[in-house]
């Protein structure tokens, strides 16, 4: 590899790092903005709020609940309608994939509930 190729690769790496940094800053800025709790991204799914979803998710991990039947039973014991856990889980995961504030709040709540 010649010197010019090495310089070009170094420049590309710097540009890529700048892009990552800008993305991280954008995420931090989005997380710092006040949220409108009336926004549909916060609407409960099958009656399950994000807070309850985080509590149940952490409880499943903390208590090593495994298997579909055991997971559903645990979720139902926390107030999830019978047979609705998979829809709840899929719904919140989808929202976290498209809404940074939802993802950030879930992460914070999940970590707190794991303590």
Automatic annotation (TrEMBL):
<protein>
    <submittedName>
        <fullName>Uncharacterized protein</fullName>
    </submittedName>
</protein>
């Amino acid at each position: 590899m010649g010197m010019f190729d090495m310089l070009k690769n170094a420049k590309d790496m710097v540009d890529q790092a700048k892009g990552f940094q800008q993305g991280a800053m954008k995420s931090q800025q989005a997380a710092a903005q006040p949220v409108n709790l009336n926004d549909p991204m916060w609407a409960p799914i099958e009656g399950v709020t994000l807070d309850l979803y985080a509590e149940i998710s952490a409880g499943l991990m903390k208590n090593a609940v495994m298997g579909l039947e055991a997971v559903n039973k645990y979720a139902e014991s926390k107030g999830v309608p019978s047979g609705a856990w998979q829809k709840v889980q899929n719904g919140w995961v989808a929202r976290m994939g498209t809404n940074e504030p939802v993802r950030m709040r879930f992460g914070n709540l999940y970590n707190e509930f794991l303590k």
